[in-house]
Amino acid sequence: xxxxxxxxxxxxxxxxxxxxxxxxxxxxxxxxxxxxxxxxxxxxxxxxxxxxxxxxxxxxxxxxxxxxxxxxxxxxxxxxxxxxxxxxxxxxxxxxxxxxxxxxxxxxxxxxxxxxxxxxxxxxxxxxxxxxxxxxxxxxxxxxxxxxxxxxxxxxxxxxxxxxxxxxxxxxxxxxxxxxxxxxxxxxxxxxxxxxxxxxxxxxxxxxxxxxxxxxxxxxxxxxxxxxxxxxxxxxxxxxxxxxxxxxxxxxxxxxxxxxxxxxxxxxxxxxxxxxxxxxxxxxxxxxxxxxxxxxxxxxxxxxxxxxxxxxxxxxxx
Length: 318
Prior knowledge:
Blueprint: E1 3-7, E2 10-15, E3 33-38, H1 40-50, E4 55-58, E5 60-62, H2 65-76, E6 85-87, E7 94-98, E8 106-110, E9 132-138, H3 146-158, E10 162-167, E11 189-190, H4 194-201, H5 206-214, E12 221-225, E13 231-235, E14 238-242, H6 255-268, H7 273-287, H8 300-309, E15 315-317
Parallel strand pairs: 1-4, 1-9, 2-7, 5-6, 9-10, 10-11, 11-12
Antiparallel strand pairs: 2-3, 7-8, 12-13, 13-14, 14-15
Helix pairs in contact: 1-6, 4-5, 6-7, 7-8
């Protein structure tokens, strides 16, 4: 495998955009629903697959119909799901995504089997021969405390893998830098969004957030996504800022995971950081063109053609 994507696995149900939320007792019609395998691990893997990488997913689902669906949907997308574990006691994690025109998405989420997924569910020999390890959904997975994730990433670095960390911080959760301090020394790329970086660091400004995180590992590339305001990337004291590409937006779900897949691809291609940022930004923007997390995502050559045709004003500083 080129990339092993490890982390939360979810059965996602998307509602097509509606003008407003229904009042109590009101029936509101939608144009369509979409059921798909989701969660950071599945979404990033699916985008990487569209970009031409060979991908394996590792995570946990329930022994239920939704678990069967997630495994089959991953296979449909061309992703190896042979290392996905099944919980006999907890259901498959599920999220219902509500899209309201002109507003950010709302989520209803069941943690499900992701709660018990941990280091003991892994066969570390899976890392042998891979090029990169991506872990998505950290903090939302209580079965993976910081020291266990540090152990996993240390094993990956000993095998010369590129290591990538993404986080998901649920409402009411207030982790601090202690959650990432043991892990970042073994991390090549850290991908929080602006809200997640603010909670972790206590800083409001994205550059100050990146500086605080980089102090835990000066060699780590910190890429903070800013939603419609683009992204900020810090690598060894060099900072790049990029706005977001303008596309016709249907659903912003999964854009961060698509950005991650684009950034990983650029690093594996050994491109300069600015080209990697442009490519990741294009892949992230393409995700928003369709309902769900993968249907609108560019293929590799499409993304290259897009960045060749559309300029992005990347600004750099040291």
